[in-house]
Amino acid sequence: MSRVFSKKESTMSIALKGFKRPSWTSPAAVLLILSSLFVVSLASSGDADAAPGRRPGHVYLYRGLMNVFSLGMDQIAYKLEAAGVASSVSNHTLWSGQADDMIARYKAGNREPIILMGHSAGADVTISIARKLAQYNIPVALIVNFDPVAPDAVPNNVKQIVNYYVPAGWGRAVAADPRFKGKLANVNENATTNHFSIDKDDSLQRQAIARVMAVTGGGIRRKPAAPKPAQVSAAPQ
To answer: What stretch of H or E contains 53?
Structure first.
């Protein structure tokens, strides 16, 4: 079995070198034990303060074709984990089974926010997942998409969706079901990026993470900057 405080014990042994070991029932031994516990507790509290707190919710991120063109999803997941937000990255082909897992957790009593994010075909399946969850009246707190290529209409269980897309390429705007009452923004990024780099754009990643933080209630409390009016389109009629 490894020793948890090996470094601290080594330092302590140097400091005590030359002293005669006291009897464990003597006052000197008691004082030594209390001093050791105090030093260890200080070091441990410093380590705990450095670690971010766990925030409620889970972000499910989906890559597109062949897992090689959507590595921005991995970058975002890494940043979210560092901020204390649970996240997982998968290929878009796994969406249905994972939706079943979300349904099972919800039925078991888990009410933490469900957040979906994807690039290309991975962005398409975020809406497919939301539509499957809608059959069980399970809410989706947030969807952030990067250039979907064939998205379904957004169902009414989605509270908020932001869709960054490049219409000059394969990207598409998203539309909403007639009963949709949430917030929807299609943000045209045609002038700034392309289909293969949109998910890796640092500015868009920051915006996506800020929106996640606002939903999970941690870190960035302010609202993300609203896109320019010319860039935002309502759901097509």
So the answer is: none
How many domains does the chain fold into? 1
The rounded distance, in Å, linking the Cα atoms of 227 and 231 is 6
What order do you get walking across the sheet with 58-63 strand by strand?
86-91, 58-63, 114-119, 142-146, 160-165, 183-188, 232-233
pLDDT tens digits for range 4-60: 434 444 443 433 344 344 444 455 544 444 444 443 333 333 333 333 478 999 999
Q: Give every CB contact of residue 224 below 8 A, 6+ residues apart in sequence.
A: 207, 210, 211, 214
Q: pTM higher than 0.85 for the full model? A: no
Q: Is 234 within a domain?
A: no
Q: Distance between CA 145 and CA 92 in Å, rounded?
A: 13
Residue 23 lies in a domain: no
What does the mean pLDDT of the chain come to?
A: 80
Cα–Cα separations (whole angstroms), residue 148 to 32, 109, 163, 224 = 64, 32, 8, 22
Residue with tokens 């935002």: 232
Question: Residue 104 is part of a domain; what is its CATH number?
Answer: 3.40.50.1820
Mark 159-172 as b/e (b = at least 16 C-beta within 10 Å).
ebbbbbbbeeebbb
Q: What are phi and psi of 91, to 5 degrees?
A: -75, 150
